[in-house]
Specification:
alpha/beta; Rossmann fold; 2 domains; 6-stranded parallel sheet; 5-stranded parallel sheet; globular
Length: 274
C-alpha cells in the first residue's frame, strides 16, 4: 500500500529511526479489537530489539491493567512499554517538586503512578491538586479541590480531552471537569498529557532516545501529531481512527507521512519488506 502524500525527504537522509512511540486507541486497537497490522508491527519491533512505547491519555487504568486489556485484544505489550498521561503526570510532578504532596481526583491508574513517584496524597494543604479521569465525579471532592486551589494549591490535570466514548454514548472527560473547576476558581490547569510535548519527552527519556531518532504514530492531528511535531519528532498519521485525510488540511502543521494503518509502517522497521 502506498503513502497517501507526496514523498518528502527520504528517511535515509535523516537520522535513522531507532525508537517508536505509538498511540493506542485508533492505531493499535479499536473497540477492544486489534487493528490490522498492529500485531505484525509490534512483532517487527521486538525482533529488531527496537525500543517502543504505547501512549494513551487514559489515566483510569494502571499499566498492568492496560497490558491485560491489550492482551485480551490479541496484543502482547508489557506494562513497561506503556506510557499513560498518569505516568507522565507523576513524572512531571516528581521533576517539579520531588516528594511533595497532592490532592488527587482520579482512579487507580493515577493514584498508583503518583504514589510510585514518592508523593503523599492528602486532603490537607497539598502543594498540588491533580485531576484525572474518573468513572463518576464526586461533588464533595470537586468542591474540596476548588477550595484548595483558591487557597493556593497548583492545579494540574492529566489530559485536556473534553469527552470520551462509552457503550452508552459520550462521557464527560477530564477536560470538561477541569473547565468547571477553572470557571469556579479563575485558575487554569496545566495539562500534562497529549498534545503537551512534555508527555512525549518524558516518554523518550524513559527509553533513552533523542527525539530526532524517534517516530510518533497517531490517529489524531490535534493530539498525537501535534505532540510529535512539537517534540521535534517525525510523525506518522494513520487513518484507522479519528482524523480523515480530508481533515489534515485544516491544521497549520503536517505529519511526515500519512498511511491507512499501522501495518503500512512495517516497511520502516524492516526496510527489506518494501
Amino acid at each position: 500500500m502506498t503513502a497517501l502524500t507526496h514523498e518528502p525527504t527520504p528517511l535515509t537522509d535523516l537520522p535513522p529511526v531507532t525508537a517508536w512511540l505509538s498511540d493506542m486507541d485508533g492505531v493499535l486497537v479499536k473497540e477492544n479489537r486489534a487493528l490490522p497490522g498492529a500485531n505484525e508491527f509490534l512483532t517487527a519491533l521486538r525482533e529488531k530489539n527496537i525500543p517502543f512505547l504505547v501512549l494513551t491519555n487514559n489515566s483510569v487504568f494502571t499499566n498492568r491493567d492496560l497490558s491485560a486489556r491489550l492482551a485480551n485484544s490479541g496484543l502482547d505489550i508489557p506494562e513497561d512499554n506503556i506510557w499513560t498521561s498518569a505516568n507522565a503526570t507523576a513524572a512531571f510532578l516528581h521533576q517539579q517538586s520531588p516528594g511533595s504532596t497532592a490532592y488527587v481526583i482520579g482512579e487507580a491508574g493515577l493514584t498508583t503512578a503518583i504514589h510510585s513517584a514518592g508523593y503523599v496524597m492528602t486532603e490537607i494543604d497539598p502543594e498540588f491538586v491533580v485531576l484525572g479521569e474518573v468513572r463518576s465525579y464526586d461533588f464533595h471532592a470537586l468542591t474540596h479541590a476548588i477550595r484548595l486551589i483558591e487557597r493556593g494549591a497548583k492545579f494540574i490535570a492529566t489530559n485536556p480531552d473534553v469527552s470520551g466514548p462509552s457503550d452508552e454514548g459520550t462521557l464527560p472527560a477530564a477536560g470538561s471537569v477541569a473547565a468547571m473547576i477553572q470557571a469556579a476558581t479563575g485558575k487554569a490547569p496545566y495539562f500534562v498529557g497529549k498534545p503537551n510535548p512534555v508527555m512525549i519527552r518524558a516518554g523518550l527519556n524513559k527509553i533513552g532516545v533523542h527525539s530526532e531518532n524517534a517516530a510518533m504514530v497517531g490517529d489524531r492531528m490535534d493530539t498525537d501529531v501535534r505532540a510529535g511535531v512539537e517534540a521535534g519528532m517525525r510523525t506518522f498519521l494513520v487513518l484507522s481512527g479519528s482524523t480523515s485525510a480530508e481533515q489534515v488540511s485544516n491544521f497549520p502543521f503536517r505529519p511526515y507521512r500519512i498511511y491507512n494503518g499501522i501495518g503500512d509502517l512495517i516497511r520502516y522497521v524492516n526496510p527489506s519488506s518494501n
